[in-house]
Amino acid sequence: MSTPHNAAEKGQFAKVCLMPGDPLRAKFIAENFLEEARLVTSVRGMNGYTGKYKGHPVSVMGHGMGMPSVGIYSYELINIYGCKNLIRIGTAGTFQPHVHVKDMVFGMGACTTSNYPAMQGLPGTFAPICSFELLEKAVAAAKELGFKYHVGNILSSDVFYGVDLPHGKTWPEMGVLAVEMESAALYTNAAAGGANALCILTISDGPDEVTTAEERQTAFTQMMEVALSLA
User: Would residue 22 show up in a list of annotated catalytic residues for this protein?
Assistant: First the structure.
């Protein structure tokens, strides 16, 4: 049951699927954390793998950049391949002085500048939020592993290279912890499809520090460990 974006057949994805934006991060996770990992799709270079983690079936599938891209892949994983727990593991920029580079952020809710949630045709404004079940387990895992983390609201923006407009209150002033580009779409698709979703971010840049592309691909392993603990 392949799609225009995914060559996997029905049954080749596990119920639990980690979703990094970078397909090379998907490859890194498959090669370094999963047993018996096999490539099940590579359409458009967007790699997807299925293997086992501590005996549990787990998949990892790249989702690209931005809400339209993650929207396509998460919709297909949920509605065509039957995935039930989707955990985005990505990077973000910090909005708060107490949230530092290489800290983890669990996105409890996702504010957005996008119209993606409005595309559901609801008679109001949908608030994209994570699965509390996955969040609770992720927090417990982070505590047990001794990892530094923050829980709160994040911003999913449609713009990477943008300017701050004079709208009054800013996102940081509203307590938003970090900014990325995908989670609002993932949370919306999960809600519409009856699945669970959680966004686990590692802060990759702040006012005074920026990490390299290689670090973002291979060094942010704490969020991978927490995500895999949810399998």
Answer: no
